[in-house]
# Entry
Amino acid sequence: MNTRSTTGSRAGWLGLCLLVALLGLFIPKVLTDNFYLGLVINGMLLGAAAVGIGFLMHQCGLVMFGVAAFIGLPAYLLGLGTSQLGLGLNSAVTLALLGSTLIAAAIGALVVRARPLPFAMLTLAFAQMLKSISTLQVMRPLTGGDDGLTMTFNGSFLGVTQAQLAKAASFWPVAWLGLCAVLAIAWLATHSRFGQVLRATQANEERMRFSGFDTYWPRLLAFTLASFMVSVAGVLMALNSAFASPELLDFATGGNALVAMLVGGASQVAGPLLGALLYTWGQDAFGATGHLELLTGIAVVVVLSAFPKGAMGFVFQVWRRLRAARRGSDAAR
Amino acid sequence: LASPSWPTRWRWPALLTILASGLALIFGLRDVMNFAHGALYMLGAYLGFSGQQGAQLLGRADDRAAAAGGWWASVFELAVLRPLQKRSHMDVALVTFGLALIIGPAVHKIWGTVPLSVEAPAVLAGSIQLLGTQYPVYRLFLIAVGFGTCLALAAWLKYTRTGMYTRAVSQQPHVARMMGVNTDRLSLLVVCLGTGFAGLAGVLAGPYLSVDPGMGATILISCLIVVVVGGLGSIGGAIAAAVVYGFIQVIGTVLFPSVAVLAPYLLLFIVLLWRPQGLGRGRVS
# Structure
């Protein structure tokens, strides 16, 4: 953090962020094309999940391969809450977020001890396990098996009804505020003492331990927090589509978020969001040519090999170099 | 396991063993979780199909798959793994994931998306009387080749100098390099071998499973679990884990058909919580 920043400029930044968050609510007034608005929403939802895993990767060095678990799980919980328990939509959303986060904490308690690569595999296995469970014959009455679970919501979510949630323009405020909340959580956690402890632990765990820091609980908390952010994305996707299917739990869903995160670069909180927007735009452009997978594959290989720090990292690098060059010429004068 | 249908039970572990040992080899040398392994296996199966159409001989198909595999493996090692060796595991793993995305549609373009069936070659097509029961020859052949390949690999690792170097690099890359092992040359060989194993498994699987575009993705997760359970960097561990994994799946399907699909994941969780480093003696970190 900049040590020279005063309370005044900090308040200014906060005001600017709030202003952007408020102005963002009116984007549908400017971007009236429903198709592109829907595309941006898809990018934002993917971005919320990518911000979650980017946070975990940058702070702890742990990559959650099974992102899909915490996208699909809250979606199914939302569906079960409304169809089986007959909850109102507000309580069902609370249940989905809470349930998913609690399960994440339980799984995290087991897996954050593992080294990075086994950790990645364990989370992937958890996602695959959930996928298998959702398609089990015994679970069919609850989850709908391969056909998926179509949801009929009771009541409205903070005053937004099911019909409105399905439309891009009226769904926008919900998605936008959800995304802002996720970004705010990630930013605050990164710039707090908690974030510092996490980064120090990642750099040298042994040293942290003999300096008297507990290294297990912060990591578990980070995992739970990241899963919560991904769950927010999952709930928003389910609210928008009113549908949960085993595809949500597939590796490919998680793969989208992972690629988006790496394309954007995780070293800045908002990097994964930029990556997700680029990724969604790319998927649309590639899909139009009919060679979606092929072009995605090529793009992934090229971008990951050429931009190690992602798009955001690249932008920052260029900016820093320009600033350094300007300072250099100032000093020469 | 000794029931009349034992070849049915043994062939899946046999196939998995070949694939997983290939994956473990590549991981050991290059520290890379190769997400393209499943795609290579699929490519092997399709090349096997084409080879058979041309020649009706498995030998010919094997040749072509091996040649294509070897060519591809060299490109993979020289153009992808070597330039990226300083990057993080995850970056390289996702690059291989991207490669898998490229291979999939390429295969669709060449062979179409309809599942194909491959006949076992005439020599191996019939069935054979063994201890009073009829067995299809191809299943026995599959089992023999599967475990035979792994025995050969184990012997190579244990008794040759190159094998010793491979084990050394897998366990302690830095020390091995300091002692004068040329890791670049070695990894070219080993990546070819690992990729070749994926192709071989594909060719062998052709007559047993149907050849379809989704076959790579389904088997990849199994292989990844096997390699992690076996202990990262431990090739022997991977072979052992593949056998255990295969049987747990097969026995699970017989005893608890409704929840058998969950068995592999439970295996992974139990093993990693009990022994975080995996079953085998893997990398010293």
Summary: Chain A has 16 helices and two strands. The two ends of chain A are 29 Å apart (CA to CA). Chain A touches chain B at residues 57, 63, 110, 113-118, 120-122, 124-126, 128-129, 132-133, 136-138, 251, 255, 258-259, 262, 291, 293-294, 296-301, 304-305, 308 (CB under 8 Å).
